[in-house]
Design a protein that fits this description.
The complex is a heterodimer of chains A (about 500) and B (about 300). Chain A has about 500 residues and is an alpha+beta fold. Chain A is built from eight helices and 17 strands. The radius of gyration of chain A is 40 Å and the shape is elongated. Chain B has ten helices and eight strands. By secondary structure, chain B is of the alpha/beta class. Classes of the chains: A alpha+beta (about 500), B alpha/beta (about 300).
Chain lengths: ~500, ~300
């Protein structure tokens, strides 16, 4: 069209001055002009024809395009999809069109997300756990003594009244193609003295073959069930008595772990760890600082669609020098653990029952000398254990045992309730000999607003010695923010 | 105790010896049944498929249970939805299994990487509920996206198992033909659904609704992942009545009660859709899933 207009203008521009000139011009000039006009007209005609040809070609191309479009519609209906969506919301339309494009070129769509220019694009996932308690104890927790089992640092009762629980911040990310790293800082109040500690700081291998993985750094041992689980995933406000007594709630240390998962239908993991041997129940970093070792085996699977189980046996062996409970010598702890979960169709977050039990056998073969004054209240301990004299240096040889059994009934996405029984069996001889075995019953009720927050009410009836009882009421909040956690079974 | 330990260790070692690796077809772990079904279409008996979850489970909140770790341990390839749908359990399965083949690279296939998603949130804040930064991950009910995923998955199978590439190619061609024919059938059949409005249980249906030109006017969950509350349900009564809604739709795994409650108060039928393969008797494969879904919606449109 534009071409035609241009030609018309050109013709006018040429003919109008020619007409004025014609009045005074000779016939010859007129004829010459006429010839020139004819020539121009011919040129114009030629150009017009060329333009028409071009237009026809364009029309043909357009027709071909339409045909191609139609073919595409017939074969994929993809463009039709986009056209239909064009009538819908603009954003949806744009996204759907992109999806259609993806049908043609999926590889393009899998290109990495933009944001590479951002210096923080590779920041690790950050997760924060906030946790706090209100506790009311009928027995003053400052004077709390347990027959046969000294209260070691880190396993004291939750303080009376309002207190901040274990609050932590965790960073995790793949380091490169071969390693994954995690770093967890935790804040805790230890008898009024606030402390920030490196709870875990480890790297995991990502590329060892055949189901092997290696962990290096500071981490919680994989012995038992609860030990490798962070407390904020527990079903009760506090750890069961055997964990408090034998592991000061949780054993973590600097070490190396090798795990192997068998290529079976059944889940089977076998592994072992070497630790420095600095944290309770170990101390002194003996055998050149690699003297504490563990072995563990866990197996698990499903029974039908509604049931899952996990069971294991573990052993922690160490040579200890003056642990928090005053022990030096060879120490071996055996743990057997079993978990059974029943939930209709396996929807454990919507209902069902979780049963769990762990059994502990603690074997000592060594000597005892009184721990430093601030670690354990020896006078109170002596009063609680009439058979014992924890002020004397003496041999410490013998077994102690402990167990807990818990059952949690999940009503729905929001509510669960549970009961836990725990019991410890003291030794008949040695520095903490006792003929009384501490026992405790706890019930809990938990309300979850989402998978990121819960509130828990717990009542415990605890008989730590023959003559004392602690009726305790706890109210706990526990939330996680930041990166979405993926929890173990 | 020491003797017991030894006995146990011996039994475990024996089990391991029995499980010595043998030459095998490709072992594939599918997080959800739709990918199990798609894998069957693309590879038939040429591969061994383990499906981790069922249509009666809420895949947002699966536990990283031991049986799943064992399945991931043996896998040469895992095929999952992605878009953070499985974020609460898949990373744990991969890390605990110690299987480096599926941790990244060709052994790790996320369907969400092959397509674009809808409803990508512009604001990431958990006060908005359980939102997925990668967009809405429930795209198994969009047949066009399924086809794009099928092509990419077929290429992945051929990459991992080149000896059977011809089989995979032939099966993809066959599937594509049947799927495209089926799409035409579904679109023709679903014409009466065009423009109809629905109330959904969870934000699971945007792809189906967009495809069929239907409209979501509300959700039983006040926010994604937050269970329906009575006050929120009550607020939907007037809206549902006023908009001449076609249905209140839930997935097979969801609690039917909130939908029934709203249905009783509005007269709008509550419809339970299969959502994935295995969600009802007819949804034995992907074709059955779409057939059943459309028929169930048409049944209330008449």
């Amino acid at each position: 069209m534009r071409l035609k207009l241009l030609l018309l203008c050109a013709a006018l521009a040429v003919t109008s001055p020619a007409a004025i000139a014609a009045e005074s011009a000779s016939e010859a000039q007129l004829q010459a002009l006429d010839a020139r006009i004819r020539a121009l007209e011919a040129d114009g005609q030629k150009l017009r024809e060329q333009a028409a040809a071009a237009l026809a070609a364009a029309d043909a191309a357009r027709a071909e395009l339409e045909k191609m479009k139609a073919t595409m519609q017939a074969s994929q209906q993809a463009t039709q999809q986009a056209a239909q969506q064009a009538t819908r919301e603009a954003t949806q339309q744009a996204q759907a069109t992109a999806a259609v494009a993806a049908v043609a070129a999926p590889a393009e769509a899998s290109a990495p997300n933009p944001g590479g220019a951002n210096g923080n694009a590779f920041n690790p996932g950050i997760a924060v756990i906030l946790n706090g308690n209100y506790a009311h104890h009928s027995l003053n927790p400052d004077n709390y003594v347990r027959a046969g089992f000294p209260i070691v640092a880190g396993a004291e009762p939750i303080p009376q009244g309002l207190s901040l629980g274990e609050s932590e911040i965790s960073f995790a990310a793949n380091i490169d193609d071969k390693f994954y790293g995690q770093f967890t800082l935790s804040y805790e109040d230890d008898n009024g003295g606030a402390s920030t500690s490196i709870e875990e700081a480890y790297i995991d291998t990502l590329t060892l073959p055949d189901g092997l993985s290696l962990r290096l750094g500071r981490f919680f041992s994989n012995i038992g069930y609860l030990n490798s689980h962070h407390a904020h995933t527990d079903n009760f406000v506090d750890r069961p008595l055997p964990y408090q007594a034998f592991l000061a709630n949780q054993y973590g240390d600097d070490g190396v772990q090798l795990r192997w998962v068998a290529p079976l239908d059944l889940f089977l993991e076998l592994g072992g760890e070497l630790f420095r041997g600095e944290n309770f129940p170990t101390a002194g970093a003996n055998r050149g600082g690699v003297g504490t070792h563990s072995l563990f085996a866990h197996a698990g699977g499903d029974v039908g669609t509604d049931n899952s189980w996990l069971a294991g046996v573990s052993m922690l062996n160490s040579k200890t020098t003056q642990a928090d409970d005053g022990f030096s010598g060879d120490h071996t702890l055996y743990i057997a653990d079993a978990t059974w979960k029943w939930a209709p169709n396996g929807n454990t977050k919507d209902g069902g029952v979780t049963l769990r039990s762990e059994y502990f056998l603690d074997q000592r073969d060594g000597t005892y000398s009184a721990p430093t004054a601030d670690a354990i209240d020896l006078t109170a301990q002596a009063a609680a254990d009439p058979l014992a004299d924890p002020a004397l240096t003496q041999p410490w040889i013998g077994d102690r045992r402990g167990v807990y059994v818990e059952a949690v009934y999940r009503l729905n996405r929001s509510w669960d309730m549970g009961y836990r029984f725990d019991k410890l069996w003291a030794a008949n001889s040695g520095p903490y000999a006792s003929d009384f075995d501490p026992v405790r019953h706890s019930v809990e009720l938990t309300w979850r607003n989402s998978e990121f927050s819960f509130f828990r009410l717990q009542y415990s009836h605890d008989d730590p010695t023959r003559t004392t009882t602690d009726n305790a009421l706890f109210l706990q909040y526990d939330v996680s923010l930041g990166a979405h956690g993926a929890h173990k079974f | 105790m020491g003797i017991k330990m030894n006995k146990y260790t011996f039994i475990l070692l024996l089990l391991c010896a029995l499980a010595a690796p043998q030459a095998h077809a490709l072992n594939v772990f599918a997080c959800e049944p739709e990918w199990g079904s798609l894998l069957h279409e693309l590879a038939g008996d040429a591969i061994q498929v383990d499906v981790g979850t069922s249509a009666l489970q809420d895949v947002h909140v699966i536990e990283a249970k031991p049986s799943l770790i064992a399945k991931v341990r043996r896998a040469d390839l895992i095929v999952c939805t992605g878009a953070e749908l499985e974020i609460g359990w898949l990373p744990q399965l991969i890390r605990q299994s110690g299987n480096s083949k599926v941790a990244s690279g060709p052994g790790y296939f996320l369907a969400s990487d092959q397509i674009t998603t809808l409803e990508k949130p512009t604001k990431l804040d958990r006060s908005e509920g359980d939102i997925h930064p990668g967009g809405n991950p429930h795209f198994q009910m969009d047949p066009y996206r399924m086809l794009a995923i099928a092509k990419a998955l077929d290429a992945r199978l051929a990459e991992l198992d080149p000896a059977k590439a011809a089989t995979y190619k032939q099966r993809l061609d066959d599937f594509t033909t049947r799927w495209q024919t089926a799409i035409k059938g579904w679109e023709a059949k679903a014409a009466p659904l065009k423009g109809r409005k629905v109330v959904v249980h969870h934000w699971s249906w945007i792809y189906l609704l967009t495809w069929l030109n239907m409209e979501q006017i509300g959700a039983l969950e006040p926010k994604p992942g937050v269970p329906p509350t009575s006050s929120h349900l009550a607020s939907l009564v007037d809206l549902t009545k006023a908009s001449n809604a076609l249905a209140i739709i839930s997935a097979a795994y969801q609690d039917p009660k909130p939908g029934q409650w709203l249905s009783e108060r509005t007269g709008v039928p509550a419809v339970i859709l299969p959502f994935t393969v295995g969600g009802d008797d007819r949804s034995k494969d992907l074709f059955g899933l779409y057939d059943s879904t459309i028929d169930k919606l048409l049944a209330v449109a008449k």
